[in-house]
């Protein structure tokens, strides 16, 4: 993605104080926040209909200390949430960013609910791996599509300018690293240049760019990419060309539970409520409670690169709460068997191995000991007939590394100094998931998109107001 050297007398067709690249959750929330602070912004989106990875997600946003939690008797705090995030990533994330995100999380979720009508509620009934409290907030259907719909309505109601079919191809940057504008390209190949006083990169990571995935995530280079195809790593490439500090490029959100061949996300709640994953040999191969992100590579390493999610009627009934799961069920992904014998025959698994796997889980529940992978079982976890099974594979959902930012979402150079007017958030910025595939705590993606997005919009607006007052 080219950087155009500013200063050779280029003409911009229009000028807006703030340009935001990308209309996923990050870009839309940043625009709402800037508007709240009185700053006019235009959001530029390459697609005709903004969707982004946000619309493919479950739309679960973690936040600590919200009134939605209080209403359900959940006691939580930003400090607890920060501890959970850092424990999962091995304390590799910037603690100042983790603190800024966790402390702002409740305020941002409540602001979106109160001022912009996003119908959030607390997701109850299970904890994702690594979370010590129920703190996921989602809209009623539990889909990112619904979250995106709510944000697009909010943006329209707030009068934010959103230009679709407008792919940003160039940044105009002077010798000092100040951004003066962008060039966008329309689907017919025509180009327009827009001047700006500040720029927010909200165009996510590089998951849709196979070359960058092979370079930075070699273990997942053959994994199915299940994020938005428009996420081509443009922010990363611009940052690289400008000399920005790029961090944690090997970090990502994988997922070890994508139904095949239906390509539907099977909620990890299935595992957290007692389900297990078996390989083609009828054996478990991991601690399913370790984390669904690192599970992607573990599933891909099994014979055939696949696994069977195995669970029972109790778990099936609970999972029906999730629209993705209901869709998978309707599509025929969920298979049902009355006995281990029928399951072994139906899934072509060795019966003896299957019996041994079940006997081991029974013994673990009785002894309270952990298995070879570190998982324990309680008697409530034990699966009873009829059994359900779904064939799944591992997938790459999105990348978590990116441009290093400070707590105001301002982008840093490699020497630690700040670019004058460049901001990044969401998947474009370095996340809080450490440096690999195992540091991703569920919700880190939208935390960075929504909360850091709000911070970026607010701080860009604040900076521009100060500049114009000076
Ligand atoms: C299946 C799935 C499930 C997930 N579930 C969850 C979850 O429940 N909770 C959670 O926290 N996270 C989840 N995630 C991760 C989460 O979706 C992302 O972290 C988050 O949506 C990132 O938001 P964003 O706004 O940064 O990017 P996106 O939503 O991807 O938006 C980026 C936008 O930028 C546009 N764009 C890119 N380049 C350009 C350009 N050059 N010019 C103009 N526009 C451009 C793209 O078209 C896109 O619309 C999930 C991801 C997937 C794939």
From TrEMBL:
Membrane-spanning parts: none
Keyword Disulfide bond: no
Alphabetically ordered keywords of this record: FAD, Flavoprotein, Oxidoreductase
Gene3D superfamilies from the UniProt entry: FAD/NAD(P)-binding domain, Succinate dehydrogenase/fumarate reductase flavoprotein, catalytic domain
Residue span(s) of domain FAD-dependent oxidoreductase 2 FAD-binding: 19-434
Entry cofactors: FAD
The UniProt record lists the keyword Ribosomal protein: no
InterPro entries per the UniProt record, alphabetical: FAD-dep_OxRdtase_2_FAD-bd, FAD-oxidoreductase_2, FAD/NAD-bd_sf, Succ_DH/fumarate_Rdtase_cat_sf
The name this protein goes by in its record: FAD-dependent oxidoreductase
UniProt lineage: Bacteria, Pseudomonadati, Pseudomonadota, Gammaproteobacteria, Oceanospirillales
